[in-house]
Amino acid sequence: MKVLINAGPTRESIDPVRFITNHSTGKMGYALAAAAVSAGHEVTLVSGPVALTPPAGLKKLIRIVTAAEMAEAMKQAFPAADLTILCAAVADYRPKFYSSSKLKKQDGGMMLELERTEDIALTLGQLKKPGQLLAGFAAETDDVEQNARKKLTEKKFDWIAANRVGIPGSGFGSDTNIVKVYAADGSMIDLGSGLKTELADRLIRIFAAGK
Ligand code: C5P
Question: Ligand 1, residues 120, 127, 144, 147: which to mutate, most atoms within 8 A of Cβ?
Fold first, then answer.
């Protein structure tokens, strides 16, 4: 199977010195890429800036920095993919104006105007052709199931892997995660807690088996 995976955060620059990002380390996405390679799939990994070594045996590694670059790379690679897994924590907002010179601090506060980035998942969900499989992730602090099911429908995912963030042993930076997989047919598989590497193996098996 041709598998496309995105992973890690994006960085949205404010000026040459500062940027907006999030706590994603890329561990879950890189574990999925490694698991997919081990299972014999042809894997393209599109990665934001992370401190991880890419798994051996990738067909292609595309490094990007911004949400716009992530969107470009994903739209280009998507048509050839049988299975696409969206594990990246793409910035939802970027600074509306980029200052090419370093902003100087002043007394008092400052306002930073933000604009929306493209929702890559939503775009790919609309481009999806019959036979293509699309899986997403939902990192939630509250109402995990309700939010996950809403995203599953809105983004036309075949599956969404939901995990809690903000609790020990799950989410950003951790080597472990707690995952439930909701499928478009309404079913749910509770994978419980485990190492991201073990969960990745099971997720790849579920996704590669198809709908
Ligand atoms: O709506 P939310 O960002 O929580 O949905 C999470 C899912 O959407 C993840 O699979 C993530 O990779 C994807 N996403 C995206 N583009 C964005 C924001 C999120 O593809 N701009």
Answer: 120
